[in-house]
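Reading a protein record of the kind used here takes little practice once its layout is understood. Each number in the token line that follows is a code from a learned vocabulary of backbone shapes. One such record is shown here in full, so that the layout can be seen directly:
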Amino acid sequence: MTAADYSDKIPNNVDLHEDRRLQRALESWQPNFLRWWDSMGPTLPTEDVYLRTAVNVGREGWAHFGHVAMRDYRWGIFLADRKHDRRVAFGQHRNEPVWQKVPGEYRSELQRLIVIQGDTEPASVEQQRNLGATAPSLYDLRNLFQVNVEEGRHLWAMVYLLHAYFGRDGREEAEELLHRNSGSEEAPRILGAFNEETPDWLSFFMFTYFTDRDGKYQLGTLKESAFDPLSRTCEFMLKEESHHMFVGTTGIDRVVERTVQLMVEHDTDDVGPHGGIPLTVLQKYLNFHYSVSLDLFGSETSTNVGNYYTSGLKGRWSEERRHDDHTLTNDSVMVDAVTADGEIGQTEVAALVGLNSDLRREYIGDCQNGVNRWNRILDEAGMPQRLRLPHVAFNRKVGAFAGIEATPDGKGLTTEEWERGKGRWLPTDVDKTHVRSLMRPVYERGRIAAWIAPPRQGINGKPFDYDYVHLS
């Protein structure tokens, strides 16, 4: 196990003190990060929060829990332990030793991949900065802040790579990561989903389930990278990312559970007047966040992604478990497409070109697991209703289906039909107003808002009514 060095100003397990120039550069970036956190991070004043902090990167015991003032959180730089015999698992460099330095011919592509990943991390903090004002419980408030500080640490992870391996260009890109802001007209975040609002807790749970799950798959492809520092960075980030998805999964569990309780108690599907979120509204929020997250995977076909694969920069999800030649030069796959006669269908393309679709398929299967889980809650309550993932062509703004409209069942629509029907499939202003009307803060220990059920267990063995957050 590699312990973090907390004696340094910047906690790390990369022997930062041995590279004084890099250490000084990162220490000069640190005040800018804290200014960003103060101006764009959580707005609710707190004294301290029960947070986990990384102490080593080993399989066991890598996190320490305790009450921490958030501004004093020990953001740091942690890479998974190096495997000295690791070799490239795919592409034209397959079976060669992995790279400890950036190959000159791949410098700009690697930098771009790191910048895009890095840009998503502070974006979600910015999107969620006001949610503390409407937290349904101290337990949920603590989970929000844990997600926020870890997204801040993931920003540090990418900034370290930019500073350590990309010279002046990397340092300039690291500064830009703090200058772009989610939803800004002048300097928006790079990817569309990270400029959307997260105005309420139902949106937050959907975001942490669907959009953070996209992050899991993107990190999973970068973990396969032949550039070993990037691979090891992403491997550690995936440990923290799992908690973010837990927050989304169990958050939606608890919303569905409470909605079912109200449906049974009042013998009605319309639980809105009784302080709940109707299943129809849950489905609309699901439709929106899922479709927006599908866009994050890019176009169904991409020459760039094929080149990343061949070059060894970015692999497939679970690359080494795949039973093929790991070069894909002679393989083909079916990808989603609009056919020549305008129908929603599929077409065959070279496997290298279809890697975005390969990753999206992995993601869709994973998303379905959560929907199955929520439907079990409905089934166990004897409810006939079911939540569903919409068709991949629904509400798409990127890729093959960006130019068409379709129902959640995958039926093609005219623009006029879409405009008439979209209020049945996506959250309306009335839906959003109702959800926001429920967002009243509950800061008393052991209490929770009426629209969501309490969790089955607390954090780190603590009870639900533990004092997770001390407010100012």
